[in-house]
Amino acid sequence: MAHWYDIEQLADIAGDLPRFIAELQQLAATLQLDVTPLTADHISLRCHQNTTAERWRQGFAQCATLLSENIINGRPICLFKLTTPVTVGHWNIKVVELPWPGEKRYPHEGWEHVEIVLPGPPETLNARAVALLGDRGLATPGIALKTSAPRGEKERLPNPTLAVTNGRVTIKFHPWSIEAVVASEQEAP
How many CB atoms lie within 10 A of CB 3? Predict the structure, then answer.
């Protein structure tokens, strides 16, 4: 199978990766977040047009396995497991989240966030995630926190999210890996 960065339909996101890495490192520094001991579970894209999402899907079909295709918050989201990971700093991330455009418009088409797993009780996720962030970083103008609980139709695991963003890139925290969430979809009700 081909490497994702050699696929013509994915050339724009291969070229976007250095920007994303630099902005993510800057966000982590602002937040005083040491990412070294943390596990980046998956990485996500954002786009403005369905044609872009379809093109990226065609590209990933040449270098990855489709793990899941689901409707979450009213829009399709595909998860792909790559044969060659996306390298972001010290992380080698094998799962890519590809959502179709929704109501919100992002300032940039390309890589938008990484999701970090903080194993533990879902009800304590926010407190555990905030404890990793520096007080000064959270008080920085332009830094926003958002909590949510995205859920696919068949998911059995509660999957709260704490997102921290500077408006350009985002770091999200979850209690479960995305592959555990996908596996929960296969479990009997």
Answer: 14
